[in-house]
Amino acid sequence: MVFMTTAISSVDVRASRRSLDDIRVRAVADAGVERAINLLGQAVKNNAYLDPIEGLKDLFGSETTIQPFLGEPLLDQGVLAGSYSVRMTLDQATATAVTLTIESTGYLPDAPQNLAPGERVSAWRAVSTQVRYELAPSSVFDNGYFINNWGWFYGNTIVCKGNARSNGQFDAAGYSPTVTGQPIYDGIDWSGGTATLTGYHDDNGDGLEDGADGGIFSGWDIVGAENVQGNGGLAANQHDFQEQVPMPNLSDLSFYEQKALSEGSSLQVGSVSIAGVYGDDPGETGNLYLYGTPAEPIVLDGPIVATGDVIIHGYVTGQGSIYAGGNVYCPDSIHYLNPPTSARPADNTTAATEAWLTTNKDKDFLGLFATENVVMGDHTNWLWQAYVNYWMASSLNRSDEDAGEDGIPGTFAGRDGIVGTADDDVLEDDGVFTVETYTAQDEALGLIPPGKSVGDVIPGSGEDIDGDGIYDDTTSYADDMAFSVPLDSANWGGNMPPGGIANYSDIATLYANEFDATFYTNHAFAWLVLGSADAKVNGAIISRNESIIYGTPEIEINYDCRLLGGNSGLAADYLPMTMKPVQILHWRTLDHDPSRFEVQP
Question: In angstroms, rounded to a whole number, what is the distance separating the alpha carbons of residues 24 and 7?
Answer without folding.
Answer: 26
